[in-house]
Predict the 3D structure of the following.
Amino acid sequence: MESSHRLPLVAAYAVAMAYVEAAVVAYLREVYGIEDVLRDLPAAADHITLIEVGRETATLIMLLALGWLAGRCCQDRAGYCAFAFGLWDIAYYAWLELFLGWPRSLLDWDLLFLIPVPWWAPVLAPTLLAATICLCGAAAVLQVDRGTVWRLTAANVSVATAGLALVLYTFTADALWALPQGIDAVARVRPIHFRWPLFLLGFVMILWAGLRVTWPGRSRLLRI
């Protein structure tokens, strides 16, 4: 079976996985009475927080395992993992909108992640990133079928790493600045404004590096 023929199966897995994730969040919001995540989120960690950290770790392991099992080489394994991660993130918000009528806007704030500190951003930011990751992952898989490989260079890796660091900083900056005051202070952090210029700079850097790697004209044909 060609690598691309597995994409629909991986997509089905990602969308189903997103359903489960969104269902858990819907239950948590009901348990804690959360209507507005900025206003109603508990200001202190509890035993549920530790379970959530474990669930997030398990989610990443599942996506990595999916990519490894679906692919045949490093390129399509990484591609499947990226494709599933991006689609899962987008489908997660689609399911939440269906379950809860949220997000009402792509500019609504969301708590994205808890490892190692809370990540905050408007929904639009992770959605843009997820769409890019998803498309790059699909391109990587399709190129395996065409007999091409990624053109990885030190410049591509450096730019992508720097861009990712900028993006992650925009998600975690408030929590990182509160970290010296202790874990309780980090848990109480609520964002006021998002660093859009910094995020967009990092996003463009990631996009540029991704295009350099996955664009067919920039790839090298495999010799068979």
Notes: The longest helix spans residues 74-100. Residues 3-221 form one domain. The chain has eight helices and four strands.
